[in-house]
């Protein structure tokens, strides 16, 4: 599970680059406006999880949320089946 936040942050970075390319070449501002805030919030959750003390009672719920969010990337070769909720 400890690798999952890093996996999510890497995928979000990839998505941010892809969306920036779309905006630059195709003028996809509406796409950016709707998706970037969600990517930013998902990245924040992943970083919060990494910074959280293992004894924090919220950690289990946040881990589940990250597993659910990571399913969006289940076709990526680095995705691990053990991360499924």
Automatic annotation (TrEMBL):
Question: Which Pfam families does UniProt cross-reference here?
Answer: DUF6221 (PF19730)
Determine the domain of life of the protein's source: Bacteria
State the species of origin: Streptomyces pactum
- Name of this protein: Uncharacterized protein
């Amino acid at each position: 599970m400890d690798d999952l936040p890093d996996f999510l942050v890497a995928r979000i970075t990839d998505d941010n680059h892809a969306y920036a390319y779309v905006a630059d070449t195709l003028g996809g501002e509406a796409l950016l406006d709707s998706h970037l805030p969600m990517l930013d919030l998902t990245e924040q959750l992943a970083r919060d999880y990494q910074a959280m003390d293992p004894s924090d009672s919220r950690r289990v719920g946040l881990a589940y949320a990250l597993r659910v969010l990571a399913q969006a990337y289940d076709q990526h070769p680095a995705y691990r089946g053990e991360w499924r909720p």
